[in-house]
Amino acid sequence: MLKSGLFGRKKTSGGPAEFFNNWFNALATTLLPQLRRTLSSFSVSPALLSVQVEAMHHHFQSYYAALDQAAAEDVALCLCPEWRNSLERPFLWLGDLHPYLFTNLLRSFLDDTEEESEDDSSDDEVAAAWKNPSRVLTTRVDQIECGLRLMAPALAARARQAQVKFVKAVGAECGGKAAVAEAMAEEMEELVGVVVDANRLRRSVMADVLSVTTVYQAALYLEALAQFLLGFRDNKFLQEFQQCQKPINSSIF
Q1: pLDDT band at 97, cuts 50/70/90?
Q2: Cross-strand pairs, 96
Q3: Residue 145 and residue 103: Cα distance in Å, rounded?
């Protein structure tokens, strides 16, 4: 197991929870504000925007690299992460957001484009970024979604199979604690592989999206993705969610 690196160098550190909280803080206080300032400037510099898009992409890559390491050290913690709040946890799939989120977000931009008036024109390259998306982009999105329909269920099936195998092994063995420990170790090893492969899929989908978008499209896409993630961590919104406890209507049963 990995015991050093992004967050495991010292036993006194806050561990993965500290790393991920710092990661979200950097996204909220540095990367997203910088990107927004550039997008809203009177004259947008494509070169500067490209640098910021790359920085944002690198930030997400570092996140999944750290998530891989967290899985290697404690996959159970990674699958039920303590650094995620009650709003985020229902959206988790194998330790993080489902890769479909990345394509659904992209689809939202494409759908908005279809709803716009055909005679609506603008010389602003940012405002016009999603007007008339290229055939290469729409075709690639279709291909990505096709791949996800095959790979995402396969990963979920591997996770289920690892759990089934563990239950069968424990139920069939008479070796006591040693047998349980061995079966548990085998399940954890398989789950680590599943989480790492899920992260690889998430990274791949994001990289594929950015590879077929213009710098303006990529900037708006990453801005929306960052805003979506940070929205779950809005204190006011979270408090309202936690205080909203709708009673179950027993008459429906």
Answers
A1: very high
A2: 93
A3: 7
